[in-house]
């Protein structure tokens, strides 16, 4: 600041004081019809602002060297003191507080004495010693006025009843701004025995602050404009203040040591620096110090201990953590509750199928007991009463739960255990969290209990939802298992039907060699299907296909018809040589099932027709019967639903499995049915990309053995 030219500070003073003068004059004019908004002091404030505008203009052109400067400053102080008196009169305290008037009279006398001193100094013969004495006396009297004025402002706001503090908040803040600045200005002037021109150049800032606060106080929205620093901002600001105070104390102490160090000054300074640095490194990062500071600030600076918005956001962030690195839900539950109380760790005990809560998860803490559990009586008690156990009180014998229910011995024996918080969901105990002792342990109060109960209920809902999801997943796995078994039983039932048909026909045609040959082929084929059944269990119910390959659709159709023997009830109506991309076994299984359904739905002797023709880029298989048919509603809502069947003793999975297998072969299964007329199932399978021509092959009808295969 010493290197800056004097003209620079003159320009700064001119700009700031001109801004203050314009603001004060504008607010005074604006208050002319609105003076009542400031109560009994409205008229006085308007006049004081106008006079302050004149004083700011005088300061802008630096009239301090002539008598007009001190005269205007005395007038400014007196009129603002009168404003303070009128503010006291707003709630009739001017009549009840006699010392207020006495202080005002004393300050007015000092201001007039200052004015007389300035007038006498202007008329007297000047000398350096005389000027210094007058300057020191004048500054000391100015300090007296500013200190007295600040005391009045403090009593004005501090002694006001709560209902009037809202109206006094902004005017007192503005008055405090100008006199706090003056207090620092005159203090520096007294200590340096010279006028601090650089700091005085910034004096207009205090006037700007005064005008701003008064404007807010006179506005209609002043009640909603309140300064509400967050807890984190307060904590950080106070921490910086402590660090600043520490540094100032160190500087002052170092200066004091330099006066007494003598020849050992450097040694003493270095030793002192080493010790203080070591102390700072040990104390400042301490969790205990930070915990004490946070508890002290929240206890004395805030109406409520917790910033509930911040607590809720932190809880949501902790519980909602996702990704591969996110800890399990149990650990997140403990962490969410521990962070709220400032606890370094904890353990989660969860009820398992009606049993007592047992250890399920822990976070940054391992209980001393290897059998960490809550006995049934204690668990029932905290569930019934939603009771939060403060273990330190129990250890001291100061708290005993109703009914004489004791806490578990391992909890009382472990000195790190601090509190037990029940997690209750719909009046049922889901679990409990044991919190470890925080660095700055304290006694829990009503606000702690309310917050812990609310968070405990929220965490219990997360645990209950997670348990429900796990139960549903387990039920889904059992359902998948049962579905696969049902598919297996369905296939076995079809094979058993074939064996029964074969046994009945054997009684009639066992002596025929051709029948015996066909029977051997059928038994061999059924045996192979039973052996393959075990390897196909993993795909049942999913509709998956092991392998898709080009194959002749007409051969599959003829094989499917041959599975039903020479009964004459299953006929191959039309069959074109088509090459499709599919799974032979799955396609045959689909056609056999649809034909069998047609037989079951048709009267004895009525034929079931199977055809395989080309339709665009697909092979179309039609299975037509003249049975009882199905209603449109049944086809739409129940036909392809697993475990729904119209047949007595049926599993209701054949149509569903057939559709899933066709879809897995990139095909489509449609159905047309009318009650009393019959049903048509249409299977469409894509043709192979490159079909082989059979023009050069001798195509012949398959033998009866091939049909049976």
TrEMBL record:
EC supergroup of this enzyme: transferase
SUPFAM superfamilies in UniProt: ATPase domain of HSP90 chaperone/DNA topoisomerase II/histidine kinase, GAF domain-like
UniProt xrefs under Pfam families: GAF, HATPase_c
EC number of the protein: 2.7.13.3
PROSITE patterns tied to this protein: HIS_KIN (PS50109)
Keyword presence, Transmembrane helix: yes
Transmembrane stretches, start-end: 6-31, 38-58, 102-120, 132-153, 173-193, 199-218, 238-261, 267-284
Catalytic activity: ATP + protein L-histidine = ADP + protein N-phospho-L-histidine
Gene Ontology molecular function terms on file: protein histidine kinase activity
Signal peptide: none
Domain Histidine kinase: 487-689
Keyword annotations: Kinase, Membrane, Phosphoprotein, Transferase, Transmembrane, Transmembrane helix
Claim: Cell inner membrane is one of the keywords in the record: no
InterPro entries linked to this entry: GAF, GAF-like_dom_sf, HATPase_C_sf, HATPase_dom, His_kinase_dom, Sig_transdc_His_kin-like_C, XrtA/PrsK
Protein name (Swiss-Prot/TrEMBL): histidine kinase
Lineage of source species: Bacteria, Pseudomonadati, Pseudomonadota, Alphaproteobacteria, Sphingomonadales
